[in-house]
């Protein structure tokens, strides 16, 4: 069994498109202020393995325990992809993924 002590933190990636960018920005800014998590840039292009535009929220394990249920209740149709940060990027994105909304295919080739 894997141990949760290997989790250094979590990333929650809020996905959006041109029609939902304002909604995503508001969600991410509110999450950052409410939970004191790190908000990344609003990417209006696909970045890394992500198949849509996105904004990353970085959280400690304690912050994530509160953030994830809040995102589940407040995402209002946006897709959120979340994963732990154990140092193994491929496994974190492929095997340990948490989806709120429809799961999408990631471009995992960047981790191989």
Summarize the structure in words:
With 112 residues, the chain is α+β, with helices and mostly antiparallel strands. It contains three helices and five strands. It has helices at 21-35, 61-74, 89-94, and strands spanning 9-16, 38-43, 53-59, 80-85, 98-100. The chain has a five-stranded antiparallel β-sheet. The longest helix is centred in the first third of the chain and has 15 residues, at 21-35. The protein is globular and about 40 Å long. The two termini are 24 Å apart. The model has no long low-confidence stretch (mean pLDDT 97).
Could you give the topology of this structure?
Layout: E1 9-16, H1 21-35, E2 38-43, E3 53-59, H2 61-74, E4 80-85, H3 89-94, E5 98-100
Antiparallel strand pairs: 1-3, 1-4, 2-3, 4-5
């Amino acid at each position: 069994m894997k141990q949760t002590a290997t989790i250094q933190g979590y990333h929650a990636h809020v996905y959006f498109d041109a029609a939902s960018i304002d909604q995503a920005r508001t969600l991410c800014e509110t999450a950052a202020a409410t939970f004191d998590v790190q908000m990344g840039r609003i990417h209006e292009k696909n970045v890394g393995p992500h198949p849509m535009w996105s904004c990353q929220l970085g959280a400690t394990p304690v912050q994530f325990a509160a953030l994830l249920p809040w995102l589940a209740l407040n995402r209002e149709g946006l897709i959120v992809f979340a994963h732990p940060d154990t140092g193994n990027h491929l496994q974190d994105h492929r095997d340990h993924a948490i989806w709120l909304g429809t799961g999408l295919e990631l471009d995992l080739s960047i981790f191989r």
